[in-house]
Amino acid sequence: xxxxxxxxxxxxxxxxxxxxxxxxxxxxxxxxxxxxxxxxxxxxxxxxxxxxxxxxxxxxxxxxxxxxxxxxxxxxxxxxxxxxxxxxxxxxxxxxxxxxxxxxxxxxxxxxxxxxxxxxxxxxxxxxxxxxxxxxxxxxxxxxxxxxxxxxxxxxxxxxxxxxxxxxxxxxxxxxxxxxxxxxxxxxxxxxxxxxxxxxxxxxxxxxxxxxxxxxxxxxxxxxxxxxxxxxxxxxxxxxxxxxxxxxxxxxxxxxxxxxxxxxxxxxxxxxxxxxxxxxxxxxxxxxxxxxxxxxxxxxxxxxxxxxxxxxxxxxxxxxxxxxxxxxxxxxxxxxxxxxxxxxxxxxxxxxxxxxxxxxxxxxxxxxxxxxxxxxxxxxxxxxxxxxxxxxxxxxxxxxxxxxxxxxxxxx
Length: 412
Prior knowledge:
It comes from Sphingobium baderi. One of its GO terms (molecular function) is monooxygenase activity. This protein is an alpha+beta fold and 412 residues long. The chain contains 15 helices and twelve strands. It has helices at 28-37, 54-62, 76-81, 93-106, 109-131, 147-155, 163-181, 187-213, 219-226, 236-249, 252-266, 269-277, 281-294, 325-328, 364-381, and strands spanning 41-43, 48-51, 67-69, 136-138, 300-304, 308-310, 313-315, 320-323, 386-387, 395-397, 403-405, 408-410. Residues 1-8 have low confidence and may be disordered.
């Protein structure tokens, strides 16, 4: 997609720079460089407008009439990649409202409190028991990456202790993430994502069919039993699509969230000491600051549905807008000391890590609880937990969803 000539590109990325060029690299110096140019600005290589201003990002997300979810252009192959059926990310208008209400019911605060006891705590203990040997561990691969996929499998009534399945889920989800990161435009990644989706369906479908006929106390059973009363037409494809999105969204993002929070804690011994002395509000604030500072999902795509403006910049119908949440969450017009950890921010949850508006993350409370329980378990078990300075240091890895890894630590 090319820009229309009447937009008169008011601001452009520096020559040969693009938001797509920071795989496995620290993007924040680039974000600050282009912030100085202004927001929004045109990224010629990404063929999109980059929005870095916090208020602009929030306003765009809240106006889906003008700035549509990128899946509005989804063809049948993209729908297959996302699982099809009753999939909340593919839906719009009244259908989306129904699906959102249903997801919020599944993931209500009261439900998440129960999940903490029945699922999250036992799984964190299961994983933590495995790293308690030998005095050293790598907390990204052996801890953070092990918890969320097991939690979502447990919630779906699937075997959370199947190591091979957990590892394969992460690989398959990453294939889909790579396609999303391309703006749904890379044909090679599209083919790999389609194959990954088919494999995920094959894993999930036997459980979807079994719970239809023999319900139990799990998400899949609740989908079959409760979705029709919520106005969602249910058949096998609809149930599979709804469960696939839970399966996908409940895994990768929280892996990175746990890793980033652990890095923030491990990188600053004074902060570690503060959290050890008071885990109540300071730990909650640490989690929010890690979400704000590192923003697991670096950016979101939107498609402009009518000629409009963002700030002083004209945006033409059909153009792509990339909301750079990771930059907006360090907007100095929004935050004092935006690159610093501040456990006393007046509104700690007012960030863009989970989005704003009707597309904000319905599983945000589940993610926060998983992050908290994962940190608390390590603090409970290891009194001298610290980065291993003799091992390779943490660095940013990946692009679209990213975190700090590896996390080599000494346990005591």
